[in-house]
Amino acid sequence: MSMSATTAGRTPSAAAREARGGGVLPWLAVPALLSFVAFAVVPLIGVLLLSFTSWDTLGDIRLSGLDSWWDVLTDPGLPHALWVTFLVTAASWAVQTPASILIGVFLAGRQRYRELLAVLYFIPLLLSSAAIAIAFKALLDPNFGLGAGLHLDLLNQDWLGEPVLAFSVVIFVVSWQFIPFHSLLYQGGVRQIPRSMYEAAALDGAGRVRTFFSITLPQLKYTIITSSTLMIVGSLTFFDLIFVLTAGGPGDATRVLAVDMYKRGFQANLMGAACVIGVILVLLGLALALLLRRLGGRDPGASQLEGA
Amino acid sequence: MDSRATSRRTFLGLSMGLPLTAAMAACGTSGPARPGGGTGAGGGGGGAKATYWFLSGPPGEAVRTAAVERFNKADPNSGIELTAVQNDAYKTKIKTAIGAGQAPTIIWGWGGGGLRSYVRAGQVEDLTSWFDQNAAVKDRLFPGAFGAATIGGKIYAMPCETVQPIVLFYNKKVFEKVGVQPPQSYGDILDLVKKFNAAGVAPFSLGGQSRWTNMMWLEFLFDRIGGSEVFQAVFDGEKDAWNHPASIEALTRMQELIQADGFVKGFSSVTADSNADQALLYTGKAAMMLHGSWSYGIQQAQGGDFVSGGGLGWMNFPPVDGGKGDPSDTVGNPGQYLSISSKATPEEKEIAKRFFTTGVLDDQEQKEWIDTGGVPIVKGSDGLFAGSEDAEFLNFIYGVAGNAKVFAQSWDQALSPTAAEVLLDNIAKLFQLSISPQQFATNMNAVIGQ
Asked: A165: number of CA atoms within 13 Å, CB side?
């Protein structure tokens, strides 16, 4: 998001100054850098150090070398949690992206009713994840929930008790909560596409579908990358909603890495092992983020507006 | 380019958000500072305050608060400052505070494995000699309550509050409608399961998502089939204790009951925190429910006239045919526990001990617990039941607690937090039928003694 904005908004002189690497701009990064060091680098180093110890949060922190790493890496729970995390990430991306693009394109229209709908769509984003999870849990209760209330047998499923259903519920609720945010990104992205392109396409006789695939979608490339990065890195660390909704259950069907980490650290009192998972999460997040940058193309500075 | 670096930094920040929160949480919840630390130099103990953290929420919070207020009034020179913490947050918060050396003077808890981890870390006072000197304090309480307070032969906590055995509750109206009698044996239970299913009523309610609810079933099946020594061997850290034939049999029977549709459909989606499991019983959607004795108060409060109209029945878990366990045995919470922080000042410890002697479970507190439907762990507290509208239930609980040959502590409380988490995890899988009894035993054997 920040990237496409800066690329589009940068004046030639600012770009020139940046290229020279001088001027006042580096100073502007100092506050961000300080808080980044204080709240991200320092705790990260702490987490890394703790991963080589065993600590039950009560007694002394004992150095234990690679014991915690060995325990976690040989635990069959780890590949399972990785797999579930991957599934959650992939499925929520696959559900959210098309839906967000379509809604975003729709909301980019300037009609009055669309503006109103845009406000309504935005509501889920304003609610806290824990509140959403509690509300859905109540609605999905097999005996006293929505199905029982409306006497609809179709809704009377063991929603959180069957592994596949519980997983689908998690994806549904996550999407319900975050599609509005990503639609907003796409709405902004679509509105930045110059009108002239559409006018030219209309003159060439392109229909709506053709226009969407030939102009709107390619022009949204960087918005898609931004939104996907946020989605993927975000779902990697997804915790609160899953923890309240299923607590990783049934069994361990929805136990993503973040939930696994919490359970090991704060419920089983194995801080060393929890920190190992924390480190794995960081590495995964970094790797994925870098990978997505690569997918963005070799030359991110290239204009999106060629021919406009 | 700068923009690239900036966004990479954003990714870093995003990907590190979680471990960061974890690390921050460890220092964030230190709680109120100990007021006792700042005072003291002046008045020779005058004005010293002990601190006391406990669980919030009805009905316990009001009773606990009132007991401390009475104590403070009677002892105006010193006193106890209270902090009530919500149930789920409490375990984490108290642990963090103790680990950070910020523990309150009086630590409220469940005894057992949690207490043992405090003892191992040297964080709580050994009260053995104090109890020897103040035998009257000890002798008025249920002897069974001291088991979970005793680690390695030494007493580290003062038992308090109420005894809470697990009880088999049933809905008398549903039994009447279907025309059946309460079970006398586990065989009867299996018959009832068929009859209730045929009548379209769920035989047992179960809040399976909460996991410890499932555990209560295993606790009774293990005891009734193999006797209390089967789990005792696990608790004592004997190698491969879960492989005991009685253990495998109990686990197998458990899965058979699940396969026979013994529990309400979708039980894995039902949570105990929302009391949905108890609602199933009092609304007549389920016929029976195995639950802690505290459920009585909840059903009374939420079930309309269900309890007052005589709809609720209760009994101890019946024997399993051919089982070795004593049918009088029970399991649950033999009491709640108060420990003294070893980091407290001598004045603070003195106040805490005075509170244990004169404040804890005074007559008024006993009466208030009885009003909530609880049985105080004081010998002869049944003398106060007369006149209570819940006298029948209270006498039953008093009898179960008093007559139990073995009053075992709930497994998840008895084991260390590490082993308890593995236990609950495997219980959930066992109830999902995703692991076999032998796999359960193998997984659990791996954490014995941890």
From this structure: 14
